[in-house]
Amino acid sequence: MPQDWQSLFGDRPGTAQFRRKFHRPTNLEPHERVVLVFTEIRGTGSVRLNDEPVGNFTSAGLPVEFEITAKMNAFNVLAVEIAFDPEAESIHPGGISGPVALEIRWDTSPGIASVT
User: Would you say 75 and 9 are in contact if contact means Cβ atoms under 8 Å apart?
Assistant: First the structure.
């Protein structure tokens, strides 16, 4: 990831699954959360981590985020299923066209102090 729809499938509509393996970030503090960030994704689909549902999305190129801390193992498999129709969205590339990142963020839940 990333890889846009048109470079893989041309103008054919359909559904595809993108998979990626990764390790859990090390040395996470109890107040830190891991967020999966898709900076640019186009289409409708779902995200699974280790065969467990994480969430669904419908996006026209905007960032999509999922908090995945509790779902992570030491070794993980991310699966993103996307349905896309290039004829319906002919100007912009479909699929996962921007970087995908794991961001470590401070938990801002009540009772957790944050540094500003």
Answer: no
